[in-house]
Design a protein that fits this description.
Blueprint: E1 14-18, H1 51-63, E2 68-72, H2 82-90, E3 97-102, H3 109-118, E4 122-126, H4 132-139, H5 145-158, E5 164-169, H6 178-185, E6 191-196, H7 214-222, E7 227-230, E8 240-244, E9 250-254, E10 267-270, E11 275-277, E12 286-287, H8 289-293, H9 298-310, H10 316-319, H11 322-325, H12 332-335
Parallel strand pairs: 1-2, 1-10, 2-3, 3-4, 4-5, 5-6, 6-9
Antiparallel strand pairs: 7-8, 8-9, 10-11, 11-12
The protein binds iron/sulfur cluster (SF4).
Residues 256, 261-262, 265, 267, 279-281, 314-317 line the site of iron/sulfur cluster.
């Protein structure tokens, strides 16, 4: 069966599933502490999809062409027994790959093993700097680098590979520590990806002057080591890949601001409260939860999906301008990166 396609003929292929809007970090570019405080209206337990409901939605998306799932949050590991969900998703015959994005703070050896045994294939760990003071100022909960490096080792030890690193680069905050991070992961098989700071959501106070363009990051790294662009692994891959010519491995650039990649975007996002967003910078979602809890059949869910995807025309990063920055966009902590 062919994948559903949108207005630009982009096939539905990837589903990012946010399992919670909560997190134990307060990264300044995602969940600034002054907004996501004790009184912030986080989702209540009964508002969040159950594992059974998430599985039903994932099966519907698989019928529509999804082959890759990514479990996100907030921080997905704050959701108890998440390996149960992984097991359910791994049992969906069409699904070829299941990954997770985590801050690593709760990725103990036992949890890594449990996730691997449940069917998780790969893991991406967020780490914005190896400089402890810089990292602590960015996660804003004083969490040390050493504990995240341990989590990366735990993932490698059980074979959740290739382990990738997500590093959001903000000018004046961590851009002076990128070479240190790149150097640390050379010859390890772990793949860092440097991410241009984005105007996600409506709370991080984004300004263009705080963005370090991918070009600048490439110049800095190629000033240290000989590198060359590498072919994408698959259609719609988010990161531009680069290889070290001395065999030191690879790294990636995710340049949504200066080199938009909307033309090959095959990603759908499901929020923890059951809303489908067809773009990271979406302003409104399509409600699956009401149908799920209203006794809808699988065919009705599929109709909703195909209707939403076939009329999709998102290409926010290509259209980003002074007028779009202040749109009331969904928070990244609600739908995962
Ligand atoms: S801006 Fe939206 S459409 Fe463009 S690549 Fe990102 S998620 Fe896809």
């Amino acid at each position: 069966m062919n994948s559903l396609t949108d207005r630009f003929n982009r096939p539905l292929h990837d589903l990012r599933i946010s399992v919670t809007d909560r997190c134990n970090f307060r990264c300044v570019y995602c969940m600034p502490k002054e907004i996501f405080g004790a009184n912030y209206p986080f989702l209540q337990r009964d508002e969040v999809l159950t594992f059974e409901e998430i599985e039903r939605v994932a099966r519907t998306f698989a019928r529509g062409g999804v082959r890759k799932l990514r479990i996100t949050g907030g921080e997905p590991l704050v959701r108890r027994n998440i390996e149960e969900l992984v097991e359910r998703l791994a049992a969906i015959p069409e699904i070829e790959d299941i990954a997770m994005t985590t801050n690593g703070s709760m990725l103990s050896p036992a949890k890594a093993r449990a996730l691997k045994d449940a069917g998780l294939n790969r893991i991406t760990v967020s780490l914005d700097s190896l400089d402890d003071d810089v990292f602590k100022s960015m996660n804003d909960v004083n969490f040390p680098v050493a504990r995240v490096l341990e989590a990366i080792d735990n993932a490698v030890a059980v074979g959740l590979e290739p382990v990738k690193i997500d590093t959001v680069v903000k000018r004046g905050l961590n851009d002076h520590t990128l070479i240190q991070l790149a150097s640390h992961f050379r010859h390890t098989g772990v793949i860092p990806r440097f991410i241009e700071y984005m105007d996600v959501g409506s709370t991080n106070g984004w300004r263009m002057e705080d963005v370090v363009p991918a070009r600048e990051i490439i110049d800095a790294i190629s000033g240290e080591w000989a590198i060359a662009p590498a072919e994408p692994n698959y259609y719609g891959e988010v990161a531009n890949r680069y290889k070290y010519l001395d065999g030191g491995g690879e790294f990636g650039l995710i340049a949504s601001v200066t080199q938009p990649f909307c033309g090959t975007c095959t990603r759908a996002r499901l929020s923890a409260d059951g809303q489908l967003y067809t773009c990271l910078f979406g302003t409104h979602g399509t409600d699956f939860r009401a149908l799920l809890r209203g006794g809808a059949t699988d065919d009705v869910l599929y109709e909703l999906l195909s209707g939403a995807w076939s009329k999709r025309a998102d290409r926010y990063s290509e259209l980003r301008s002074e007028n779009t920055i202040y749109l009331r966009k969904v928070e990244m902590s609600r739908i995962g990166g």
